[in-house]
Amino acid sequence: MEDTQLISLTSSNETGMQDILALMQIQNNYINQLYSMIISACADAQVAANKEFIDFTHHFVKFVQHQSSSMGFSQALDTIRVYHFALLELLLDNQIVAAAEQLELAITSLELAKTAPRTLANPQMIVLHYGMDLLEEAQLKIITLLEELVAVSRRGQLQN
User: 64 is in which domain, residue-wise?
Assistant: First the structure.
């Protein structure tokens, strides 16, 4: 088991933690909306039979599994509610990295599926692609903010 230290939130990084919580809630909403879009898109036999779309759904499901199984995100949600301490290093665990990789693979597969002649003009595919772009943007912002907060917290510990 890793030796983790509780990092006290200062007024400068408390706002950052609130931003991360807000982004995590937005990201969760995107995931739920994208699931609905994927189910709707699967009703179209041409989309559902597309190999790239099948690859996309596989990677998207893996992304969600990694994201939801991340010990850091689960613990962080509880910790943020208390506002006193955060386990920032846990937020950047291997599951989050694996989730980001699966999200990237899902987007690549969706882009390939979108270019197939039978799915090129499918409005569900266009909306799904837009939703995936929003999800990717939220994921990158969360990771970037976490990295910044970890760096600030480490500098504060070094000064002490």
Answer: 12-155
